[in-house]
Design brief:
Strand content: 5-15%
Number of strands: 7
Mean pLDDT: 87
Helix content: 40-55%
Largest sheet: 5 strands, parallel
Order of helices and strands: HHEHHEHHEHEHEHEEH
Low-confidence stretches: 2-38
Length: about 250
C-alpha cells in the first residue's frame, strides 16, 4: 500500500470515529439524532434529587419522559400550585418502575402526572396490535405497582402526543391512548387527559408547537399543554378531594 493511501485511510478513519463520537455525545446530551436513546438519564435523575429535597413531600409530581424533562419553566408556568418536575430523558415504563422509589415513593405526592409516549414502542417488533398489547400490559402493572405504594395518590395519565417526526406511529399512539382511557375509567385513582388533538388534527401536525426535532414541545407547546389540559385537571382534583395544601 502506498504511504499516501495508507495516510488517507487512517485520516478518514479518525474523522469517522470523531464524527460518531460527536453524534453519541450530542445524542446523550440533547436526546436528538440517531443516538438519542443514549441520552444520559442518570444525570437527569441526579439533578432531580438535588433540585427537590425530600422535605418537599405531598406535592404534585410530573413523572415521565423528555417532554417533561425539557419543560424547564414548569414551576413558573404553573405558579398557583406546588409542582415538581421529575421527568428524565429517554425514560420508558420499565425505567419509571425501576426508579420509582427514589423519584416517586419517597416524595409521597398527592398527585402524579405520568407521560411516557412513544419511547415504549418505537423499537418493538410485530403488528400494531401486538405492540399495543405489550405496552398496555406493562402500563397496567406499573399503575398497580404505583398505587400499591401510594394508595392515597391520584394519578393522571397523559395521552401520548402525536409527533411530526414520528408520524408513522400516529395510528399506534391513538390505539394506545384509547386503551389508556378505558383503563382510567376502571379505577378511581386514575384520571386520563387526552391531549392528542393538540398536536394533530385532520391529518395535519401542528409543527409550530414543536422544537426543530419534531419530537419535543417548544415553550409555546408546553404552555398550551399546560393551560388547556394540565391545569384544568389539577383544578378539578384539588376541588374534588379538597387538596388545598397544594396551592402556593
Amino acid at each position: 500500500m502506498k504511504k499516501t493511501t495508507k495516510y488517507s485511510l487512517l485520516t478518514a478513519a479518525a474523522i469517522s470515529v470523531t464524527t460518531i463520537a460527536g453524534l453519541i455525545y450530542h445524542g446523550k446530551r440533547n436526546g436528538k439524532g440517531p443516538f438519542q436513546s443514549l441520552k444520559d438519564y442518570p444525570k437527569d435523575i441526579e439533578n432531580i434529587t438535588k433540585n427537590y429535597p425530600l422535605t418537599r413531600n405531598g406535592e404534585i409530581v410530573f413523572y415521565g419522559a423528555s417532554n417533561f424533562t425539557y419543560w424547564q419553566q414548569m414551576e413558573n408556568d404553573i405558579p398557583a400550585y406546588k409542582v415538581q418536575n421529575h421527568g428524565f430523558g429517554g425514560s420508558t415504563d420499565k425505567l419509571l418502575i425501576k426508579h420509582a422509589q427514589e423519584l416517586l415513593f419517597d416524595y409521597d405526592p398527592n398527585i402524579v402526572f405520568i407521560q411516557t409516549g412513544s419511547n415504549d414502542y418505537v423499537n418493538l417488533s410485530g403488528s400494531d396490535e401486538k405492540k399495543v398489547q405489550k405496552c398496555i400490559e406493562i402500563k397496567k402493572a406499573m399503575y398497580e405497582y404505583f398505587h400499591d405504594n401510594l394508595p392515597d395518590t391520584k394519578f393522571v395519565i397523559m395521552s401520548g402526543l402525536l409527533l411530526p417526526k414520528r408520524s408513522e406511529f400516529v395510528n399506534l399512539t391513538n390505539m394506545i391512548n384509547s386503551q389508556l382511557k378505558q383503563i382510567c375509567e376502571e379505577y378511581d385513582y386514575l384520571y386520563f387527559v387526552d391531549a392528542s388533538e393538540m398536536t394533530y388534527q385532520n391529518g395535519i401536525f401542528k409543527e409550530e408547537l414543536f422544537k426543530e426535532d419534531g419530537i419535543h414541545l417548544n415553550h409555546d407547546g408546553q404552555l398550551k399543554w399546560c393551560n388547556d389540559y394540565i391545569i384544568p385537571m389539577i383544578d378539578h382534583l384539588v376541588e374534588k378531594y379538597h387538596l388545598y395544601d397544594l396551592k402556593k
